[in-house]
Design goal:
The chain is built from two helices and two strands; from the N terminus they run H-E-E-H. It has 94 residues and is mainly α. The chain starts with 12 loop residues before the first helix and ends with a helix.
């Protein structure tokens, strides 16, 4: 398996992570999947939201992986379409 490593200077780490957070909608709080609508809201026993279990660095990594997959698929689809166009142009229709 290939490994891609991205090195971000320590003094730019916060800037990069905050940029991804803003651009792709990272939320510090997310809906509580265990929230019981039949019970009163309680910040300890029945909160409506909880801290996001996905850290900002993990979120950023997930977004980058998604972007790589999307662009690779787009590239392959483009090559396939171009190859099909070449084949179609080689067929004589009368």
């Amino acid at each position: 398996m290939a490994t891609i490593t991205i090195n971000i200077p320590t003094d730019k780490e916060t800037w990069v992570l905050e940029g991804f957070s803003t651009r792709f909608g990272y939320q510090l709080q997310v809906p509580n999947p265990a929230f019981d609508q039949q019970q009163p809201v309680d910040p300890v026993d029945n909160p409506m939201t909880i801290d996001n279990p996905e850290t900002l660095p993990a979120f950023t990594k997930r977004i980058i992986i998604h972007m790589i997959k999307t662009e690779a698929n787009t590239g392959h689809n483009q090559v396939s379409q171009e190859a099909n166009a070449v084949i179609a142009n080689e067929v004589e229709l009368t």
